[in-house]
């Protein structure tokens, strides 16, 4: 029953954003408001509902829209300030999302709900970038161990938070978690474009790289927030070279095709007719169908507790995103030591290389310890 209700709310929101005027009852208002917040589409929905006969929903959206606009202005100011600081210190960067993306795709930093600033720096400049953020009062919230060098390819960003401004920065050195091949920073920078925030030029990914990044990012999260698909919808209003898109995405190109299928289904996105064969590929179609599981449920993948059913589905879904080559690479990565191995059997740093040959034994040891009865039982 709840899934059916969420499906109705999702379809109502997508219909409204397609320019239709779906009917609703007074009882729907609170549920639609919650759905708009969940999907991070409050500004877009408030804009299209101006003049809608359902004044109660419009009135409820306006305070949330204003609250976000004030925060967006603060984020935009900090984004331009950090861009200037990094430029002055000779550290290259590319803004991935946040206010720069909102300005690029929507023409207004307040028209896209965002909670942080995502920036990409060259891997060799990561330590310098982290020092710059700390010098500005940011504190790192490290969510992974750096005791082994695996973090450099297993993970893709470090998180920093400023307690006084309430601003979070995700400092990327990769676009997505590894293992897997990605375009080099220099390659991305050469294709980048500039967006001005408060008169300050801020470098942003080029359209084709942006399409690839947004598609893979949204797919990794199951498109559980419609905002990510609406970004694709907005991006498709710009000029894209799909030959370059497929070149950039490589063996992940079915993910890009599935993003277009979903965007077309939800928001009526004008799809590239000359790419019909690409869009109708079997894997792209299957991935698009699988994503509706997330859209028609109230799923928070970053919540502290995720249901066993959702966790199992998401694990299988993420595997389905990968090509056979990436699946083999992921399987091979399990033979590389994890921080848990160091915790189980601490060794001096100079002989950490021994974790590689003994990794299977340490894995079996951990499994046996988990399976054994608790002490004193």
TrEMBL record:
Protein name as annotated: Nucleotidyltransferase family protein
SUPFAM superfamilies, per database record:
Nucleotidyltransferase
Question: Gene3D superfamilies from the entry?
Answer: 3.30.460.40
